[in-house]
Amino acid sequence: MRGMGPVVASEQQATNQVSTLRRFVQYFQPYRKEIPLALTFVLIGASTQAIGPFLLGWSVDNLIAKGNLQDLLLLLLLLALIYSLGILAIRGQIMRVGWIMQRLLAQLRQDIFLKIQSLPLSFFDRSEAGDLMSRLLNDVNTVNQAFGQTIAQMLGNIFSLVGIVIAMLAINLQLGLLSNLVVPVMIITTSLFARWARDKFRVTRETIGELSAKLEEDIGSVREAQAFNRVHLNIAEFDILNAANRDANVEAVAITAAFLPSIDFLNTLATAGVLAYGGYLAVTGGATVGVVTSFLLYVQQFFRPIQILSQFYTQAQSAFAGLERIFFLLDEPSQLKDAANATEMPEIQGEVTFVDVKFGYNPNQMVLKGVNLQAKPGQMIALVGPTGSGKTTIINLILRFYDVSEGAVEIDGIDVRSVTQASLRRQIGIVLQDNILFSGTVAENIAFGLPHATQAEIEAAAQMANVHEFITSLPHGYSTQLGERGAPLSQGQRQLISIARAVLINPKILILDEATSSIDTRTEALVQNAIARLLKGRTSFVIAHRLSTVTQADQVLVIQQGQIVERGTHTELIAEQGVYANLYALQLGAATTSV
């Protein structure tokens, strides 16, 4: 059975390639009305290429041999018109096919981007951003290089080849059969080279994905690399991945470099055969000089499209490897889809209930183990506990970034799985420990969740978030352009803008995840004041390791190993002298010691 491995693998690869091609062809469906015009141009171009050698050979026997110069001049004018028509047809086919292909590839990129945006967070827990970018950019670009314009030439060469074969067999059957003797050898050669190239090109696509992921990670963490003196290690790791990609490409190029001379050799062999046997027929009267001339021209034209088609076939292996990666991504299940009968979430009042909720990122390992909680409208709920206890998971389930494994999450008595995700999240605001700002103006970043907000609304949100004065001190105020991730603003300034972003959408439920950590004392006072304003009249869930920030919470939920082990107000839990009281005493002691 072990000996069957390569055969099974080869058959599987062929099946995958056919399936990939069939799926790629479906992208041509929207352009089925434009395709006939492109094919018309292709047929005209192919016909002009096939008729030329026949007319030239005919002229040798019927015009040149008889000294008919006047008719020869007319024939040359006719050939000039035919080839001019062919040039225009080829130009038309390139433009039309190019028009179709660029729109097709743009749609492919759009599908990839939409898929990435719709994938559940669990997918990104196990995927690298750089590899996803490589599929969107590098793999699609590989498809563009293989099919963008080459497909127009490929179609033209297929029709030219058919026309040339028919013409050769019609003019002289013996010479036609002799010329085609090398075709089976060429097909076998192409198949072997293509199989080797497909494997190598698949490796190149995988290694460029790994390289892109490494590059994206190292550029994003260059400050940490320099701070921890890891630059030389990062360079060494990059060199290894870069070398792997280089070697894979060198091997693929080596196969292509060996392939083209093989085709040239077969071309030369066929030409020599036609010249030798054609010369013999001409001398013995089996064929005219004009027929032999036509065949020599046809042989040259015959192998030109075969060379192009063969080269395209090997190059297409890289494109197929890229398409396989693209379709693998597009087939990734979007686990969190709106239910078929999902309705719009009505205006939220703010009651949040967990009913015996169990959840695990891995089905075999539950993170939450039967959580029950109820937050009444306007209440502040504090979630405290050690890292990995399940605090952030509770937040993710409220936003329906994940679906519960068992139980239910309800808002105002409505199961969040029964409403559309957009209508649910539209009414929930979130301020994270490390909020992301985007390249764009300050105003655009504040209006991220409400793009059509007016300038007055944006400024009012900024004032409520205690960041208006800072923004107006910037060189261009609200029109100041920010760099990637909000550079060059400080962590505290980015946090205040993130709070203004949450204020603007006026959420009925607010989530704060370590919103005051990693900022200086002065900025923390501004953030705390802004948060206090933001919390009024809203149901809020606050994750905080610094327990001094949640002493005013209506409920404090102490979470350990996926279960709520204590609940109550700060005063009640201190009086119980349990887990929370011990945590609070430890933090208070640490703060006193540091002072």
From TrEMBL:
The keyword Zinc does not apply. Residues 352-586 form the ABC transporter domain. Keywords: ATP-binding, Membrane, Nucleotide-binding, Transmembrane, Transmembrane helix. This is ABC transporter ATP-binding protein. The keyword Transmembrane applies. Residues 37-318 form the ABC transmembrane type-1 domain. It is found in: Cell membrane. One of its GO terms (molecular function) is ATP binding. Its main location: membrane. Pfam families: ABC_membrane, ABC_tran. It is a multi-pass membrane protein.
